Amino acid sequence: MTIMEEQESKGTLEALLERLSRQSVTPGKHFDAYVDIDWDAPELQVDPSDPRWELVEWDPLGASEWYRAQPQAVRAKIGLHRIAEQMRTGLEFENVLQRGLLELAFRLPNGSPLFRYIYHEVIEESQHSLMFQEFANRTRTDPVGIPRLLRPGTIEVVKLARRLPGLFFLFILGGEEPIDYVQRRALREEHEHLHPLLERIMRIHVTEEARHLSFARHYLRERVPELGWARRQLLGLGAPLILGIMAALMLRPSRQMLRRYKVPRSVVGTAFRSPSARAELHAALRRARALCDELGLINPASRLIWRGLGMTEPSPGA
Prior knowledge:
single chain
């Protein structure tokens, strides 16, 4: 059990908020995008042909025969574009997250410890957005973020923070858990091959994101049991849909990117429907799904949705 998990299991939400707020001002645990990254350092410059940008072997597209058959420079460009696209999607997600948190903070009474923590998180997410956009700018790939058809829905997500905060915090987990999983795995397994700029960004992000995930999970643990039967049923049905949509946004390349590099549709279909891709999706959402199970949000009806979206553990030999 990590230190953050131990904190989650002890005390009340108020005690957790006090600890997280204190960490948000502790040197070495909070960062500034333009102080803690030397963007102009020679070793941090972005060369699109650098082999360190290539997709990892456990990425569904990176594992495909089509990708491995491409020239090294093309593999690097695709990998760099994919990273930039994840960062652009991430900063747009964080924009929605921040607006929702501010909606929640607007109605808090004087003296609420939640007010201070929310503003710490908003500040940290703003620094992440600056960091992600700066990286995307330096790749010169002009990555897209949230698909245009889904953009109007972001306004409704912001409103959830006030009307149905449980669904809003599931949205947060849906956006943060998959990218946290990917970054932690990359830092753990690929650290010797990571470009130093990407490694620095990842380490900053996972350090501060641990607080944000801890808060979201603890908030749900404390508030969901207080909900009536009807709202818990709504959460149960909404959870796999929200988590599935957010995971797809974070883990799959956009249509624009696939067209740009002329990736065949058959390659995409095979790559992202393979047992290994399903296993990665399940691993990325394992903690979020376990939390839903713990909170009693997985019932016979919602279990069908989880299974239909491919977010259950693949059976052996599937």
